[in-house]
């Protein structure tokens, strides 16, 4: 089997979103090697002033969002009437499709916050589908291994030593794996993913080695084609594994909208201004 190697390392950069929420961001809207993923935001702070403003009501069209919380407590509300609490260890998925208006606001007013929001692109054929939402509490996330070497699979399917590893989220617009690997120093993990998938990694804690290349904390790594991923924790490590079937279509991005043409972006803005984005 061919093992995937690191082809590029990208450092996350400090930014803000929502009502002044401090984040670390990596994005690849026009980078085909990111596809089907578009963006990953890391929310990490011990200071409530950095996150207390949250993400007040705002629109989306043409993407899916997957929010995963390592530590913290947020509440989701949307125009469809869904109300979900995102607690430590849990995740929530939303497919904006044609249009959604939602908010994500912290319930906590003190203590540390650490989580991620991942944008997943939708193919053109599904960008105008009805919006969907589902949350997964921590006990619903499938776990494989021990505390010293734990893989939590949130979305999609992969294998290890011939055994299937699956996540509870199985209805993304294209096939996509999102998993969280946590390991102590010198622990290793070898995983198999479809050769059709592109694979990216985000190291949120410690350092990892990928076939002789060091990927440090706060960095995003793009991997070559292949069948297996071999990871070694150089320090106590935490890594998001993002793998999926690439969408070979044009990407046009403007704020919360991701479509295939500028005309579709303009239509999304008109629909939102006219109050018909979600109709």
H/I helix tally = 1
**Class per helix and strand makeup:** mainly beta
Biggest sheet record:
7 strands, antiparallel
Overall average residue pLDDT: 96
Could you spell the SSE succession in H and E letters? EEEEEEEEEEEEEEEEEEEEEEEEEEH
As a percent range, the share of helical residues equals under 10%
Shape descriptor reads globular
How many E strands?
A: 26
Biggest β-sheet: strands ordered side by side in the sheet:
1-22-19-24-17-14-13
Proportion of residues in extended strands: over 45%
Gyration radius from CA atoms, angstroms: 18 Å
> pLDDT below 50 for ≥5 consecutive residues: which ranges?
none
| Cα-to-Cα separation, first versus last residue | 48 Å
Task: Walk me through the structure.
It is globular and about 55 Å long. 4% of the residues lie in helices and 54% in strands. The protein has one helix and 26 strands. The chain has 279 residues and is mainly β. It has a seven-stranded antiparallel β-sheet with strand order 1-22-19-24-17-14-13, with no helix packed on it. Strands 2-3-4-11-6-9-12 form a seven-stranded antiparallel β-sheet, with no helix packed on it.
Write a concise keyword list for the protein shown above.
279 residues, mainly beta, seven-stranded antiparallel beta sheet, 4% helix
């Amino acid at each position: 089997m061919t093992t995937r190697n690191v082809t590029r390392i990208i450092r996350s950069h400090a930014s803000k979103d929502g009502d002044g929420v401090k984040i670390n961001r990596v994005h690849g809207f026009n980078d085909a090697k990111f596809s089907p993923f578009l963006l990953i935001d890391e929310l990490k702070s011990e200071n409530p002033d950095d996150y207390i403003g949250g993400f007040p009501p705002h629109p989306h069209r043409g993407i899916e969002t997957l929010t995963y919380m390592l530590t913290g407590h947020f509440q989701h509300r949307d125009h469809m009437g869904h109300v979900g609490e995102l607690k430590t260890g849990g995740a929530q998925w939303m497919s904006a499709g044609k249009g959604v208006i939602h908010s994500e606001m912290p319930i906590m007013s003190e203590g540390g916050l650490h989580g991620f929001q991942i944008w997943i692109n939708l193919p053109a054929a599904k960008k105008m589908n009805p919006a969907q939402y589902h949350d997964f509490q921590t006990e619903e996330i499938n776990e494989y291994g021990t505390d010293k070497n734990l893989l939590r699979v949130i979305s999609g399917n992969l294998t290890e030593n011939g055994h299937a590893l699956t996540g509870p989220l199985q209805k993304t617009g294209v096939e996509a794996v999102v998993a969280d690997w946590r390991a102590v120093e010198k622990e290793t993990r070898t995983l198999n993913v479809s050769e059709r998938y592109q694979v990216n990694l985000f190291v949120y804690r410690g350092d990892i080695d990928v076939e002789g290349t060091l990927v440090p904390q706060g960095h995003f790594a793009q991997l070559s084609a292949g069948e297996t991923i071999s990871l070694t924790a150089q320090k106590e490590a935490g890594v998001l594994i993002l793998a999926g079937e690439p969408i070979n279509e044009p990407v046009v991005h403007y704020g919360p909208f991701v479509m295939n043409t500028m005309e579709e972006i303009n239509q999304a803005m008109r629909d939102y201004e006219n109050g018909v984005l979600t109709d």
